[in-house]
Design brief:
Strand content of chain A: 25-35%
Strand content of chain B: 15-25%
Radius of gyration of chain B: 27 Å
Distance between the termini of chain A: 25 Å
Largest sheet of chain A: 3 strands, antiparallel
Strand order of the largest sheet of chain A: 1-2-3
Structural class of chain B: alpha+beta
Number of strands of chain B: 21
Radius of gyration of chain A: 21 Å
Shape of chain B: globular
Helix content of chain B: 40-55%
Oligomer: heterodimer
Number of strands of chain A: 6
Shape of chain A: elongated
Amino acid sequence: MVRELNGRLHRDYLKAYRVTELISNGIFLLLIAVYSGLAIWLEWTLIPAWIALGALVLSLLLFTWLIPKVKYARFRYELFDDELEIESGLLFISNVLVPMVRVQHVELGSGPLMRKYDLATVSVVTAATTHRIVGLKRTEAEALKRRIGMLAKVEEEHE
Amino acid sequence: MSERRSLHPLYLLISVIGAVRGFIPVVAIVLLRGVNWEEALRWYWIAGAAALLLVFVGFSYLQWRKFGFWLEEDRIVIRRGILFRDEKTIYYTRIHSVNVEQPLMHRLLRVAKLKIETPGGGKQADGYLDVLSMAEANRIKSLLRDKAGQTGTAQAGRMEPDRAGAGPAAGEASGTAAAAGGHTVPEDAGAMRTAEVSAPQLPGGVMEKESGVYFRLDTAKLLQAAATSLNFGLVAAFVAGLISFADDFIDLLLPEHYWEHVVEDSMDLMPGSMVVAIGAIIIILFAWLLSLVLYIVKYSGFEVRREGGQIALSYGLLEKKSFLFEPKKVQAVLISESLLRQPFGYGEIKLQVISSDKQEQLMLHPFIKLSRAQELIDEFVPQMKLHAADKLAPSPRRALLYYVRTYLLIAAAVCAVCIGWFGTPGVWSLLLIPLVFWWRVSCHRSAGMLLEGGQLALRKRLLNRTTYYVRRPTIQRMKVRRSRAQRRKGLISLSVHALGSPIDYSAACLDEADVEAAWRWYSRSMRESGRAADLSS
């Protein structure tokens, strides 16, 4: 919140994100096509199909173009020696501060699409919460995971 | 391996009753529908019921036979299960809290249920000893506590209160029994005092290190607390439960269209606006009465004791609950003032404690004069210091917009719908707007924060004004949040997460400078500047 955070997501994440959204929108389009086909065949009304098509265009604009762009642009993180800070958000921007002494373990994961772009997700798990950094290059994520693992070992000094 | 122990034989009865209880709704519905008694008393029906009962009894007996637990040097082992054997080992050092519970059936039969909680893992990880005699339950509880205490003696020693004169051996068995009997110790004018209970030593040679009832809630205080609690959450939960249960019965009990007739009759007699107004008043009164009754049922016989280095809470009329935990397990302190209590300076104190049952924060005192709250906190959670309400840095005036805006829009939308739907009588819904405005303004006035002495205080209002006190080491993470417009105006929301509660605790739209100080204070890499900010405030 106070300092400039230097970590960014990889540019490829934007592509992977958009491809995911395109796939779900594609399913939507398929449903519309099926309905239209049925409607023409059985002489139903076509109005729902037009409404759905409008919604699809809106969803394409919003979910595949605007939201990924803004989310990507606003996401920042940095790992300091004692803590991890993550800045993220869409309309509201939030900063989270996770002390290394609270970290219980770190996970690395990636889905099939993410793997295609050689991307991975780092999940930082504390006793109460999980914090995710989605969309780093595999090697970068690996390095981050190892560094957090090392830093998290340090015992908390007593107050 | 040490001696095998079994549950109390009454386990059989309780388990059978529990199984039979499951059939009550079915039986009730059948009875209400009307029964042909001649048909019902045929031998095969009775024989069937008897056989079913016999199966339950046999099953319970097997369960009881297969249930065994062993108290070892360093751990307790619990074995159960007929087909699938289940063995649970809990090391004494891992035990978080030991609770003696008495659901209704247990109370009637004068037995208890012991629940051994371990951190994390949820309900699955807890150890249950379902039916024990009261004396046995208390003996095991104190045994477990002593064993667990051996590792944490340093902590316990520090927590030992300086009331040297307190009774040497107050049997908790007698203490609980007295509470179960519904006795309340007469109190003097003060909200609390130290009552010493002396009783014969416990069987089994377990000595109480120190124990005394710190306070009990007497009947007058309980009534006051219940009348002012405005615990609508309790009411909502109760009504929801009631509706889901009663749904099946209402149609059976009442003639068809009963409610329609009642409403129509009264509608004819009065103008529409009157109906709405009177209806609203009746609903509010009813909710208030229900909240009063439920509160009494839940908290009657409320008692706080100190047992060794630990805090013991017990309360409940029908279902007796008791909790035992170490002061160092307290993550945060909540002070909550309901609308009816705030003008009189009363409130309730709750503790957020790590437990596997994460839903509820434990009540430390249901009704206390807040000017005297610090005494209680010093006694039980000495690491916490309460702040005077006016010391908190309030949410700045420019934040009012963000408190009011969304809610007024929603209220306006509701009004529009009402007017559109009901026509002229719907205009009455416009009253909602000033009401919502007043509510949001008071929320804004209540919001605030204070950073002092290594401790963060956050205050907000939903209906009750709640102040949340948390120390730096127990904060799991800190989070801030703001929109672009809020950033331009120097406003920001702060939330912190501590163990023992599923949700964050937050205060919205505070002054950026105050929040930044807290951020630096919490940050470990900006520590030095954080300390400076802490000192200057």
